[in-house]
Amino acid sequence: MGREVSGMIELGVNIDHVATLRQARRTYEPDPLWAAVEAHLGGADGITVHLREDRRHINDDDVRRLKESTQIKLNLEMAATDEMVEIARRIKPEMAMLVPEGRHEVTTEGGLDVAAQEARLKDVVARLADAGIVTSVFIDAELRQVEAAERIGARVCELHTGPYAHAFHNAGRDAEAPAVLAEIDKIALAGEAIRAFGMRFNAGHALNYYNVQPIARLPGVRELHIGHAIVSRAVFVGLREAVREMKTLIREGAAVGSV
Ligand SMILES: CC(=O)[C@@H](O)[C@H](O)COP(=O)(O)O
Ligand SMILES: NCC(=O)COP(=O)(O)O
After folding, report:
1. Up-side HSE of residue 151: CA atoms within 13 Å toward CB?
2. How far apart are CA 93 and CA 73, in angstroms?
3. What ipTM is given for this predicted complex?
4. Measured between alpha carbons, how far is 122 from 156 in angstroms, rounded to an integer?
């Protein structure tokens, strides 16, 4: 069956690594606010930022300014801590995504283990909802995590595409390699469960210009969150063009899936 067309897939552009470049000199540029506007002009449907506890790139003032001074929806990635909940309740992004965080990690290494901490996360989701914030959870493509996400009241699940991306790279970018197909099947099955529970099926992490289309053509996927690859390309072609190129790939990939 062709892809069930549920409207165009949205692109959430993660601009963390614009701030990484700024923090390299601890200075004021490049400004993530400018990046958000450029991404929006290139066709981004949303902006994602990860306010890490160590503030290695995006800082509290960036989040405030993005919310106050741009017209594009904001997805705040955050650890499920009291500090971050209070920041989110104060700034009120359209969405908050709960992610695991390790101080020594280079980037997010796995999905949030929702199943292991349901009671605590259910309280976090309720406190965010009370402030009018939609809560997403960043999870591995596992049914038990999807079921737990539904029980804690998450409205959105973003499936971790890192294992798929690594398998794709290790297979020499062969989308038909058995290891790659196995990862795609995991994501597809988890995505079906997400939709069956009435939650929104998003995906992200390590997606790039080579591996994005097999994910874009999955039935019912609503939004892809992509950052490092877009910012990397933007170094050479500019952020507006890098976003435009990614949107085209996603649109063409989804179209192939709909035949
Ligand atoms: C959740 C996810 O996969 C990414 O958004 C990740 O959180 C980005 O973190 P860094 O930008 O610090 O790599
Ligand atoms: N949640 C995924 C995200 O926002 C971007 O991740 P990446 O593309 O920087 O790996």
Report:
1. 14
2. 7
3. 0.95
4. 14
DSSP 115: G
Domains of the chain: 10-258 (3.20.20.70)
**Count of beta carbons in the 10 Å neighbourhood of residue 130:** 9
Tens of pLDDT, residue by residue over 175-218, are 999 999 999 999 999 999 999 999 999 999 999 999 999 999 99
- The C-alpha atoms of residue 231 and residue 20 are separated, in whole angstroms, by 10
Instruction: Pick the ligand that lies closest to the CA of residue 202.
Output: 2
Determine phi and psi for 135, rounding to 5 degrees: -105, 130
Ligand 1 centre to CA of 107 (Å) is 6
Asked whether 158 lines ligand 1 (CB < 6 A), one says no
Helices then strands, counting H and E runs in the chain, come out as: 11, 8
Band of residue 258 on the pLDDT scale cut at 50, 70, 90: low
